[in-house]
């Protein structure tokens, strides 16, 4: 994170990690392979909890659970640094952005979209465009939890403020999409 993608070599990483170069190269033959592993680990740590869809039947509860997990995920200390390095290196290494999106954001986004589709099919929500609804929901949370961190090095909202932001995003989704008594 200190030297950027281009300014970092696998040899330097091996040295900093106190492992032999051959050990690192066996595990990660290229810098791209190592970066892919970092992205995958960042997004899929605790994958059972992070990507698990709540049971259908209670839209408020399901969205609240998803919202808090997403806020926790994108609020992790290393996540902001990962986004910053990807954005900084995009002009020279567009594959980093594709990796971050395809291995990280897309699977998480798909799990939210599928949850909303399930609630729609069960009649608990009127969500004719689950892709758009998932974007709206995750965007409301990211706009408070992640994006200020990208620009403000001292942005560190209190957990109660993050909970409030998630609650407000859930309320907005319920007002727009709920078709049952869970509103």
Automatic annotation (TrEMBL):
Stored Pfam families: TetR_C_7, TetR_N
Residue ranges that the Swiss-Prot or TrEMBL entry lists as coiled coil: none
DNA-binding interval(s): 9-28
InterPro entries registered for this protein in UniProt: Homeodomain-like_sf (IPR009057), HTH-type_TetR-like_transc_reg (IPR050109), HTH_TetR (IPR001647), Tet_transcr_reg_TetR-rel_C_sf (IPR036271), TetR_C_Proteobacteria (IPR039536)
Annotated protein name in UniProt: TetR/AcrR family transcriptional regulator
Residue stretches making up the HTH tetR-type domain: 1-46
Domain of life: Bacteria
Annotated PANTHER family: HTH-TYPE TRANSCRIPTIONAL DUAL REGULATOR CECR, HTH-TYPE TRANSCRIPTIONAL REGULATOR RUTR
SUPFAM superfamilies: Homeodomain-like (SSF46689), Tetracyclin repressor-like, C-terminal domain (SSF48498)
Keyword field: DNA-binding
Keyword Membrane found: no
